[in-house]
Q: What sequence folds into this?
């Protein structure tokens, strides 16, 4: 995959021999709060519209303004849109980090930088393109106050000139970005145009990187996982959303609110078929969601690790009182406040058994925006079917970054409200029902919801010990029977969860197991292992917990199974070991926990080393 | 006190919706004999019965504590939820979002409300969640064996003789300040007053906070406790004598009471709350007056009882959220899942 010959001796750059087309990364270093997000999105969109498979990842600090931030765009004609560890094309706009950014580049890479930074003195094995951003901006933006806002758009023009990005797409991108502000659109277009003109006249191309139109994005959309999951919830029929702001989950609740306002206000009455409540904290947001789930709403809350920790006691109550509720956990790096704007898969273990006592919560783990949408909708069916809290595990990389995806399919299944008894049902049963009786032998009992008018419909939900009819009980036998029934119910949970996606071949002795956003990196790592080392691997991507029998069979069939985790302790592997103790010795671990979106090389290198390739 | 209502209580054959007293009762109490909480449960049974409230449309919720156990001892025909310590307000809020047609009755303790649950209590009131929220206030943690709670008065002693050295939180003062739209204080031993207040609260739409001093006979009913039966009987100051006429009774108020001594409040369902003033200038619709009188009583070591504050023109939380007429819990797939055209539009925008 290395298209440029790396030369460790740092030879001066000559004219490149090989072109690198549609397969490199652009890394923009700016200052947080400097308005670079618009320029980066316009760039991303232009590449997307040129049909090039692309992803955009925001590597940002926990800060509103002033700290360094990076935006990394990956163009890949092969469709690998995970993060690329190596930076190919650097745009150095931030004096604070410019030196370090330049020093960390591999030889042969290219740098566009703000001329006064004088970065070309640092190394002689890179292609440097100094650009006088201030005078270029000043010429097209007479008002000094606005210059800061459009200055970053100049680099879009410069990159367009250097990388052959179509200016027409930049223009369309700007129009979309500033759709409601035509004045701002014009100002930004002028800035981009000025950057393009200046670069065309003054810069001689000396690096190998180039973009060209292809046909990789037909029928595709570009979307953040949080928006996708929010849409999923809306089309899954959510009726109550409670939340408390926390990165990286806030934009999920906000997106949901936006879609609900558009699509779920009754046209004739102007009234809402939903409630969204920003609660006072996560203790309240989960409590409200549980109250709503108990009373028959399709309820969810969205949060991140610190919120999950606060929700612990309530989630135990909902598990034990058997109340449906959906929790979307957009994971970030912990423990504690940790790296609040960096990604991780650090909540698998805590979510799976959140709360004290013997608890167990099914998880759905999407890896793509399409799955965010699908699982965001299905989670409600699973929760209501199993009458229990269900976690949907996103992470910051998936939730807050832009991904290309296929258009989402309109749900082709009916909403499943699970086992709920109506007035007529109770009448038919002549009142002879019990909230926690295992009538069907699947451990799932029947419930009623408040407001049911039958005089024998009511039951008393409680976190204290209870018998089959929901009466308070401290009797040993009642307790054990109830705990065993819940265990039986959970053992059947996998039936309602998405099956793993397995790619296997006869030659593969070694396999990988991964979940969530590790997927992009694993796909690419498998390709690297095949192309660079001639090493075939099998792959099982789990999408739900408890794991399915297919996963167990897969692990049993392979000698070495590398479980990829984006946490230090191998949490996914721990869950596999817990569920499949007999085959735990097949499992090995590849753990990355640096907070960046996982890249393929990290996995490839680990397997090469362990397998002595 | 309406005599019509009082007569009904004596002849409980069946109420106006044709139910006898039984469906309003619950299981036999497991609380200590003489516990104030039991008296409150009895008043709940009577009031719901007498007002002819359909128990299937009631939800009864609680946190954790002796007080919070009591929902098992009344309204057996109502769905109940004994939740977690201090966080019943959130559960009740969520349930009312799911089904705004329900009538929510929350029972909490002073520990449950004023310590662990203070945040939730405050935000429930700020939202004006439609609920009748009863604090069974004994100044201590009954269930964990008598530790001081945050409503215990400064200097009040525990059974062991230890004096409380922190000032109390006045839940009614807090309620008036933070947006509750019906605030009252009563005493578990004052059957007549508690009944009237409870009935008025049930006719209210919005957060009705009832702080009911309810002695714990086991841990906090000794000399030195300011929440003992003896202390409360001696230091209780009623603010007004309260009459409540439910909307289904004929209302002839003006004729019975001389204007100027009676303050009438029309409740949401058309019932009349009639406050005969003992305090000459007490206006229950004024926040300032309410806070002033609560403070004054505290200074004098008195327990001011009665309806301290009422406001009937604030929108409740479910009104603020402009919820559909059909309870959210009862919406079908046709209303819950937007049409394919909606998804197509979004997909076009994202393409
Ligand atoms: C999270 C949590 N912490 C502590 C407890 C222990 N606990 C149970 S009841 C209670 C105090 C109850 O006091 P109050 O609400 O005044 O009720 P009372 O028993 O006095 O009626 C405490 C601290 C608990 N159940 N949950
Ligand atoms: S311990 Fe106190 S509060 Fe609890 S039941 Fe007994 S008397 Fe009532
Ligand atoms: Mg108490």
A:
């Amino acid at each position: 995959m290395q298209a440029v010959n790396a030369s460790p001796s740092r030879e001066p750059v000559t004219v490149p021999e090989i072109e690198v087309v549609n397969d490199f990364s652009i890394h923009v270093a700016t200052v947080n709060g400097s308005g670079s997000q618009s320029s980066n999105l316009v760039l991303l969109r232009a590449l997307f519209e040129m049909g090039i498979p692309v992803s955009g990842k925001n590597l940002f600090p926990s800060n509103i303004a002033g700290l360094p931030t990076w935006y990394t765009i990956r163009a890949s004609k092969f469709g690998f849109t995970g993060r690329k560890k190596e930076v190919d094309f650097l745009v150095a706009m931030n004096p604070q980090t410019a030196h370090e950014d330049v020093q960390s580049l591999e030889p042969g890479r290219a740098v566009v930088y703000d001329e006064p930074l004088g970065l070309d003195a640092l190394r002689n094995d890179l292609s440097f393109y100094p650009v006088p951003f201030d005078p270029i901006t000043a010429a097209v933006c007479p008002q000094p106050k606005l210059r800061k806002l459009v200055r970053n758009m100049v680099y879009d023009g410069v990159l367009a000139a250097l990388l052959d990005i179509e200016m027409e797409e930049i223009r369309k991108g700007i129009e979309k970005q500033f759709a409601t502000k035509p004045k701002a659109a014009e100002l930004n277009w002028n800035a981009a145009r000025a950057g393009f003109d200046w670069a065309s006249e003054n810069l001689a191309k000396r690096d190998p990187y180039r973009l060209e139109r292809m046909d990789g994005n037909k029928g595709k959309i570009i979307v953040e996982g949080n928006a996708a999951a929010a849409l999923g919830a809306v089309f899954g029929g959510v009726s109550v959303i409670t939340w408390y702001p926390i990165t990286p989950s806030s934009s999920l609740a906000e997106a949901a609110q936006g879609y609900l306002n558009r699509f779920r206000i009754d046209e004739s009455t102007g009234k809402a078929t939903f409630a969204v409540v920003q609660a006072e904290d996560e203790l309240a947001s989960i409590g409200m969601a549980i109250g709503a789930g108990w009373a028959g709403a399709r309820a969810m809350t969205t949060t991140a690790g610190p919120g999950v920790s606060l929700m612990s006691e309530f989630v135990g109550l909902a598990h034990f009182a058997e109340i449906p509720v959906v929790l979307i956990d957009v994971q970030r790096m912990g423990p504690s406040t940790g790296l609040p704007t960096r990604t991780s898969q650090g909540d698998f273990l805590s979510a799976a058994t959140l709360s004290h006592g013997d608890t167990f919560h099914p998880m759905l783990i999407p890896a793509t925006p399409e799955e965010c949408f699908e699982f965001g909708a299905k989670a409600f069916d699973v929760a209501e079917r199993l009458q229990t809290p269900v976690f949907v595990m996103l992470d910051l990389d998936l939730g807050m970054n832009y991904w290309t995806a296929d258009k989402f399919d309109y749900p082709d299944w009916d909403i499943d409200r699970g086992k709920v008894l109506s007035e007529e049902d109770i009448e038919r049963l002549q009142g002879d029902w019990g909230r926690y009786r295992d009538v069907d032998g699947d451990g799932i009992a029947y419930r009623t919801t408040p407001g049911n008018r039958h005089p024998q419909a009511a039951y008393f939900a409680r976190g204290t010990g209870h018998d089959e009819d929901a009466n308070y009980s401290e009797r040993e036998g009642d307790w054990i029977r109830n705990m065993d029934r819940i265990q039986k119910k959970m053992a059947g949970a996998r039936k309602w969860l998405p099956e793993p996606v397995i790619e296997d071949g006869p030659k593969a002795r070694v396999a990988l197991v991964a979940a969530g956003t590790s997927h992009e990196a694993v796909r690419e790592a498998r390709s690297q292992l095949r192309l660079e080392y001639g090493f075939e691997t099998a792959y099982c991507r789990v999408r739900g917990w408890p794991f399915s029998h297919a996963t167990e069979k897969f692990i049993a069939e392979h000698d070495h199974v590398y479980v990829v985790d984006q946490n230090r302790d191998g949490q996914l592997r721990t869950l596999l070991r817990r569920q499949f103790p007999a085959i735990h010795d097949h499992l090995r671990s590849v753990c990355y926990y640096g907070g960046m979106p996982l890249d393929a090389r990290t996995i490839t290198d680990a397997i090469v080393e362990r397998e002595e390739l | 006190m309406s005599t019509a209502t009082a007569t009904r209580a004596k002849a409980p054959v069946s109420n106006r919706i044709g139910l006898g007293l039984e469906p309003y009762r619950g299981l036999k109490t497991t609380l200590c004999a003489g516990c104030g909480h039991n008296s409150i449960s009895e008043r709940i049974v009577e009031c719901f019965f007498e007002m002819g409230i359909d128990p299937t449309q009631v939800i009864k919720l609680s946190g954790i504590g002796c007080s919070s156990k009591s929902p098992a001892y009344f309204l057996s025909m109502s769905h109940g939820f004994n939740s977690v310590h201090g966080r019943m307000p959130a559960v009740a809020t969520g349930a009312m979002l799911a089904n705004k047609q329900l009538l929510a009755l929350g029972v909490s303790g002073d520990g449950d409300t004023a310590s662990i649950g203070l945040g939730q209590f405050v935000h429930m009131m700020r939202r004006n969640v439609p609920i009748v929220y009863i604090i069974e206030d004994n100044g201590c943690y009954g269930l964990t064996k008598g530790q001081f709670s945050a409503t215990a008065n400064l200097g009040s002693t525990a059974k062991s003789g230890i004096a409380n050295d922190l000032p109390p939180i006045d839940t009614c003062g807090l309620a008036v300040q933070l947006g509750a739209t019906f605030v009252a204080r009563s005493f578990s031993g004052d059957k007549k007053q508690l009944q009237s207040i409870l009935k008025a609260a049930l006719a209210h739409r919005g957060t009705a906070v009832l702080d009911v001093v309810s002695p714990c006979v086991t841990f906090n009913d000794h000399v030195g406790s300011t929440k003992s039966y003896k202390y409360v009987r001696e230091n209780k100051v009623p603010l007004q004598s309260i009459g409540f006429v439910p909307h289904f009774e004929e209302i002839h108020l003006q004729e019975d009471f001389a204007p100027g001594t009676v303050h009438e409040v029309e409740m949401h369902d058309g019932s009349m709350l009639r406050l005969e003033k003992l305090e000459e200038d007490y206006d229950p619709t004024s926040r300032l007056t309410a806070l002033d009188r609560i403070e004054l009583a505290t200074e004098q070591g008195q327990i001011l009882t009665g309806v301290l504050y009422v406001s009937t023109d604030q929108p409740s939380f479910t009104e603020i959220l402009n919820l559909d007429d059909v309870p959210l819990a009862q919406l079908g797939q046709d209303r819950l899942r937007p049409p394919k055209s909606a998804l197509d539009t979004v997909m076009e925008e994202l393409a």
Observations:
- The two ends of chain A are 17 Å apart (CA to CA).
- Residues 109 and 471 of chain A are 71 Å apart (CA to CA).
